[in-house]
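User: I'm curious whether this sequence folds into something compact or stays loose and floppy. Could you predict its structure so I can see for myself?
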Amino acid sequence: MNNNQQPIWFNTWVIVIAFIVCWPVGIVLLIGRVNSSKQNMFDGSTTTKVCYVIGALLVLAGLGSFSNSFFAGLFYVAGGAALIYYGLKNKKKVERYKGYIDLVANQQIHSLDTISSTMNVSYDVVKNEISTLISKGTFRGATINELSRSIEMSAVQEQPASQGFINGVLENVGVSSSNVTVTATCPGCGGTMAAPKGATVECDYCGKIFTAN
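Assistant: Here's the prediction. I'll summarize afterward.
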């Protein structure tokens, strides 16, 4: 099932109008949208582009406003610079999210210390970001054990791809009568899962829709 539904105030057209009417509200809505679901959390490329474009427009507007009002110009420039900075930070965070999926889901590494060392990220950052992913449903049924400093996975999440498809099939496209199962790699996050060959599926980790080949 595709759970990429979101409140109306997180729709693109609403955010664009908010930036036109009152850009600080637009920034709040944009950041809220990014953190609203695992699908939006992994949509780093789109978010980064939006932040860069709108941020650059705000900076240009601020530079043009300095002649009339120094404080108004500074207000716009600061907002634009903050948005560009957020876009850069979010891009790096999405890359870390993909790294967690590779280590935890693909390589079955559950030690937070090992993940921290491998990715050269502090233990607290790893723990907090993986907790966020768990809360959004990226690692279904997983919990963090503070004592063992590890991720405890449910039986369904630990199931190897060769033993069966974890998530649901959205649409069968060219699936053979022999129901051939392949190990599909999600183009959005790099997570691997078993799926009927040629079927349109939803990634269990980031929610991206793709065809299993």
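Summary: The chain has three domains: 8-93, 108-157, 159-211. The beta strands are 143-145, 150-152, 169-172, 181-185, 192-196, 199-202, 209-211.
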